[in-house]
């Protein structure tokens, strides 16, 4: 069987590719521009918005890792899922988002509902806030100013390491693990607010990292100065507003139950990504 990983250059997709062992089973990475990547597995052109790329990507595939990329409509993802099942795909694992069950308007929930009706084994992974947001979008402030500059107030998040989400996805794609329900919520071990997260950073990096608890306006201004798009800034503010309202504090034991080990802690993450936080 071949496993197709979409979003293979992304935060979770790259972890899925790393975790799957191409010597045990063929792994195919679907990316928009294969010439722009150097993955260690077979790489094909794949774009959710270009159905003409789907046929080759799905050739001989038994399991697919699905995700919902920014800028793509959910209908493209569900159309692709239909095409996958038509060509014989038996297992689909979808990267969803924490709270999709509570917010039916979320596009992720629309995709989940569609998958539940397919004639295939499907699993939606409702992932909490990725620790990798801190080594990604928020790393310039940590590196240059020693700040976790997010408008989340006292709100808590179940910070999960995207690598753990990738391992869970890989185990489900190979059939090594199965869910007894259509979706599972994946979180890290503890719900932390950003003040507590800053304390973890300070201890691991051995320099003071603060959480100034900035206003939404201050964060928007800083992001705009960094050249981020208005759409992205609005999306981010909405996400952190959910945290302020206490909607992201949930913790589950699903990672431990599925992997037989505890999820990575924020301290482990900071230690592993230390170089990305150096001033
Ligand atoms: N950030 C979080 O804390 C968080 C938490 C839970 C869930 N999520 C969800 O996770 C998803 C994002 O996953 P991620 O963070 O792993 O990805 P990511 O790091 O944001 O990377 C985006 C990926 O999407 C691919 N992509 C973009 N447009 C595409 C298209 N038209 N067709 C095919 N692939 C396309 C990109 O591939 P190429 O450019 O290489 O083609 C890239 O691999 C979103 O649905 C988000 O809501 C995020």
In the predicted model, the low-confidence regions spanning at least 5 consecutive residues are none
Biggest sheet layout = 7 strands, parallel
Widest sheet: strand ordering: 3-2-1-4-5-6-7
State the CATH topology of the largest domain: Rossmann fold
- Per CATH, the superfamily of the largest domain is NAD(P)-binding Rossmann-like Domain
CATH architecture classification name of the largest domain: 3-Layer(aba) Sandwich
Small molecules in complex: NADP nicotinamide-adenine-dinucleotide phosphate
Rough shape? globular
InterPro entries: Ergot_Alk_Oxidoreductase, NAD(P)-bd_dom_sf, NmrA-like
Pfam family, one: NmrA
Domain NmrA-like: 2-210
Protein name: NAD(P)H-binding protein
What's this model, at a glance?
This protein is of the alpha/beta class and 279 residues long. Helices cover 40% and strands 14% of the residues.
Structural description of this entry:
- It comes from Halosegnis rubeus.
- Residues 2-210 form the NmrA-like domain.
- InterPro entries: Ergot_Alk_Oxidoreductase, NAD(P)-bd_dom_sf, NmrA-like.
- This is NAD(P)H-binding protein.
- Pfam families: NmrA.
- This protein is of the alpha/beta class.
- It has two domains: 2-127, Rossmann fold, CATH 3.40.50; 129-160 and 187-248 and 264-279, UDP-galactose 4-epimerase, domain 1 (Alpha-Beta Complex).
- 40% of the residues lie in helices and 14% in strands.
- It is built from twelve helices and seven strands.
- A seven-stranded parallel β-sheet has the order 3-2-1-4-5-6-7, sandwiched between helices.
- Helix 3 links the parallel strand 4 and strand 5 (91-97).
- Helix 9 runs antiparallel to helix 10 (230-244).
- The chain starts with a strand and ends in a 7-residue tail after the last helix.
- The structure holds NADP nicotinamide-adenine-dinucleotide phosphate.
């Amino acid at each position: 069987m071949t496993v197709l990983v979409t979003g293979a250059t992304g935060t979770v997709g790259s972890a899925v590719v790393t975790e799957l062992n191409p010597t045990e089973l063929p792994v195919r990475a679907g990316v928009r521009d294969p010439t722009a990547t150097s993955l260690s597995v077979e790489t094909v052109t794949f774009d959710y918005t270009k159905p003409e790329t789907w046929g080759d990507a799905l050739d001989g595939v038994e399991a697919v890792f699905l995700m919902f990329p920014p800028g793509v409509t959910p209908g493209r993802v569900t159309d692709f899922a239909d095409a996958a099942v038509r060509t014989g795909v038996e297992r689909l694992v979808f990267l969803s988002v924490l709270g999709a069950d509570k917010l039916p308007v979320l596009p992720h929930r629309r995709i989940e509902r569609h998958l539940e009706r397919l004639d295939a084994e499907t699993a939606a992974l409702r992932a909490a806030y990725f620790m990798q947001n801190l080594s990604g979008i928020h790393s310039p402030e940590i590196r240059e100013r020693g700040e976790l500059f997010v408008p989340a107030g006292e709100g808590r998040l179940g910070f999960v390491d995207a690598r753990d989400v990738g391992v869970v996805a890989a185990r489900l794609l190979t059939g090594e693990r199965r869910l007894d329900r259509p979706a599972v919520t994946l979180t890290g071990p503890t719900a932390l607010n950003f003040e507590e997260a800053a304390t973890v950073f300070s201890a691991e990096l051995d320099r003071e990292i603060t959480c100034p608890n900035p206003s939404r306006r201050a964060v928007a201004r800083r992001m705009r100065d960094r050249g981020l798009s208005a759409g992205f800034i609005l999306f981010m503010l909405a996400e952190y507003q959910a945290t302020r309202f206490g909607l992201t504090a949930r913790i589950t034991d699903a990672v431990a139950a599925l992997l037989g080990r505890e999820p990575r802690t924020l301290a482990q993450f900071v230690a592993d990504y230390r170089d990305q936080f150096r001033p």
